[in-house]
């Protein structure tokens, strides 16, 4: 299993547009072969801080995600919305239901 949490800080004036674009990316990402989970989380203390929780069956499926048309369109659409570069952090799943 390949699990990544992508930390994203957006500029406040772009928050709503970012959410809309990312909802679409999440919906399409969930349809990809090998996708187990693709969630968007918003910080309670900082509503401009988001996390994408991405889980794929393996690293190859996660890499394939970055070649899809919807991911490339999302990346371009949100590029100017970022307050700083996004940071993806890989995690190893230890316990799940």
TrEMBL record:
Q: Which Gene3D superfamilies match?
A: 3.30.70.100
- Which GO cellular component terms, listed alphabetically, does the Swiss-Prot or TrEMBL entry include? cytosol
Q: Which domain of life is it from?
A: Bacteria
- Cite the Pfam families for this sequence: ABM (PF03992)
Q: Which keywords has UniProt assigned to this entry?
A: Monooxygenase, Oxidoreductase
The residue ranges of the ABM domain are 2-90
Question: What is the name of the protein in this document?
Answer: Antibiotic biosynthesis monooxygenase
